Each structure stands twice: as C-alpha cells, then as structure tokens.
Amino acid sequence: MCILVANITRNVNNMQEKVNNFAQNLSYLRSKLDGKVSQQRLADELGIKKSTLAAYELGRAEPSFEDLIRLATFFAIPIDGFLRKDLRNDTRPVSTNGDLRVLVTTVDPQNRENIEFVPVRAMGGYAEGYGDIDYINRLPAFQVPFLSRDRKYRAFPYEGDSMPPLREGSVVFGEYIDQWDGVKNGTICLVVTKDEGVVLKKVFNYLEDKGVLVLKSLNERYAPYPVRREEIQELWRFAGYFDSEFPMG
Question: pLDDT (tens digit, 0 to 9) for every residue of the chain, 249 residues total?
C-alpha cells in the first residue's frame, strides 16, 4: 500500500513539474515573438481559445495532446523539450513555423526591455546578425524614460545626407513594426534589407498589391526606389533622434 501511494505521489509530482515547465516555456516563447505578442493574437494563430492559452501559461490546465502538437510544431521545438527543459536557459534564438516574426531582444536586471544601440562598427553586420542572440547580446543597451515601456525600440547611427535635417552621426530611435502591411504612406522608417543594411527613408506602402515598399529620401538629389517584401528583414518606425548639436534652420 505504501509503495502504491509513493508511486502515485511521484507520478503526480512529475506531471506537475511538466505542467510548470510547459507553462513557463510557453510564456517565455510568446514574450520573444516580436517583442510584444498578445495572448489573443497567438491563440488566433494557433486556432485555440485565448482562455485556453491563458490557462496553459498560468499552469492551471494541462495541454491536450492536439494543442501540445500545435505549439511544438509552431515553435519548432520537440514536445519533450517543451515539457522537460527550461527553455529560458537556451541561447538559441526563438523561431517559428508560423507567420509571426521573431525579434531577438535583451532585458535589464528588472526584466525591462532594453533599447539596444547598434554602433557604427556593428552596422555592417546587422542585416546578418539581427536574429543572432549572441550578436544582439554584445550590443550596448540602455533605458530611456520618455519612450513607452509597452513598445520595443532600438537605436541606430544615421549616416549620409539623404534625410535632412538629420546630420551624419545623429542617433535615430526606431519603434519595432510587426505588421508591415499596415504601415501608412509617408511614414519615416528605418528599413533593414539584405543588400543595403539599415537605411532611413520615407516609406510608401504597396506591399498588398505589388509586394514592394517604395523608399524615398527627403534630399531630392536621391531618386525613390522599390524594395521587394522578400528583401525586407525588419522595419522600425522613426521615434526620435539625438544630436549633440542644435539643428540649423
């Protein structure tokens, strides 16, 4: 009788440990999707109820076998890894088999999203390293109190003379854009592409009908040009800039 009770207790404890691992792993993985992905949006992507997803993340419900397969397939993670490992200790970037974009990011000791700064010496490798957690972890990071805590920002040095009145050497703050199709015409964005790296341009959005963004400089010496959707890696909406000198009129 004692042996039977001990075995039952051990099995219950093992199951609870798996549920706890699953809950914290699911919450962690969702937090890494685009910086800020709501439970509703992920639930819609997976085809499950938001209340079900919330219960999974809180450890209040065991996932059905079908939902476990959905989640493991979506995040491209073995089921055993979901249940037995602490994925917060995994240094690999989070990836998915769905349509959601993944943003590699860092947090401060208080678990607040950092603003990573991509210095000039690192700009050349950003188009390749933006999805590499080791590359992102090496970037300087800081907090800015006047930017929203609910959004994700990154800072880039501005180079060239195509976007006056910005001067070369200014630091541009960008707000991460997840839904590219919703970008309004005339929005100024930092556009990350495979060939050009990071450029600051006024964007005209023809993604839905032509599959391109048209990038326009404020300096009329530079002609507008199109960029195909498949060439785009990231979009960051202009959120402000820092310059050590007062702008001239």
Answer: 444 333 333 443 455 677 788 898 898 888 877 656 788 888 888 888 889 999 999 988 888 888 888 888 788 777 777 787 888 776 455 555 555 566 778 888 887 889 999 999 888 899 888 878 789 889 999 999 889 887 899 999 999 999 999 999 999 999 998 889 889 999 999 999 988 999 999 999 999 899 999 999 999 999 999 999 989 999 999 999 999 888 775
Evaluate whether the domain defined by 115-242 bears CATH number 3.40.50.1370. no
Which amino acid belongs to residue 85?
Answer: K
Q: Report the CATH superfamily, name and number, of domain 2-89.
A: lambda repressor-like DNA-binding domains (1.10.260.40)
Residue 188's CB is within 10 A of a number of other CB atoms, namely 17
Whole-angstrom distance, CA of residue 111 vs CA of residue 28:
12
pTM for the whole structure: 0.64
Dihedral, 176, 177, 183, 188 alpha carbons, nearest 10: 20
Domain ranges of the chain: 2-89, 115-242
CA distances from 120 to 155, 157, 158, 210, 245 (A): 11, 6, 9, 33, 19
